[in-house]
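Researcher: Here's a chain I'd like modeled. Treat it as a single chain, no partners, no ligands.
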Amino acid sequence: MPVILHVDPSTADRDSIRQALASQETWSIEGAESYDEARSRLDQGPVDLILCEAELGDGEWRDLVSAVSSRQMTTPVIIVSSQMTVESAAQAVREGAEGVLVKGGDASEWLFPLECALDRATSRSTRLAAENSLTQLTQKFVLNNEKGHIPSLVNLLVENCNRFGLLDDRDRMRIQVALEEALLNSVVHGNLEVSSRLRELEGDLFEQAIAERKVIEPYRSRRVTLIANYTYDEARFTIRDEGPGFDVTKVRNPTEDDAIALASGRGILLMRSFMDEVEYSNKGNEVSMVKRRSATQSPLAEITEARCGAAAP
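Model: Modeled as a single isolated chain. Structure tokens:
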């Protein structure tokens, strides 16, 4: 039986909404008159959905969203308000609210949107349970040569590293830089065969060359393949392009005095600095990078408890 927690300082409003939702006999409607009381109820165990007056006197709806998040629950928080503008409601959703219902009308009309919210919450909970059971995850991505898509992909890869508890705050930034550099190298220098030396010339010749080669053969049809493998010990990323490759031993170290102004080699230096292992294939069109668990991160048992324990009844 789904449990809905209705948080509203007004006893009359809580009673009115409870009566309006009474036709849904499979729902259990519980009430709380303040943020503190609602938080105490969450300490006793999860609920399936929260209806929350925008202002609670001792808090507001954002505080409940934070309380749910800190307990690693998937409970949706729906704001009940008679004063929110469309712009404010949209901003509330961006800040974590599931939605906004207009107070003062016929609350029985809320049945359908509440059913939809409960269905979405069940789906999220099921997905989270499946994710928490993972001990290993392997993903394969095949990318075109649009370098503007790389940051979004890197965010996904970093998110998966976080899911396995591999990164601390410092490593999160470092692995993001290393992955972006590796993928950009594969697209720009590998598939499109655009040299870093063009960056050292005046004008925008570098970007012009990228734009031109993206639409002509053989460059246009080339793809970058990324295989990511995650465990609780490490993340391994293998990135392969379809270009001619290069001899990595001939890449100048950009920290040398006579190479400091050169653009080439900086990406590889960052990758080697921020990853625990970086290895290139003999042809040079494939790189394998490994990031091991940060020393500051918890062992597997503690991570599992942190991810699963707080959400348990």
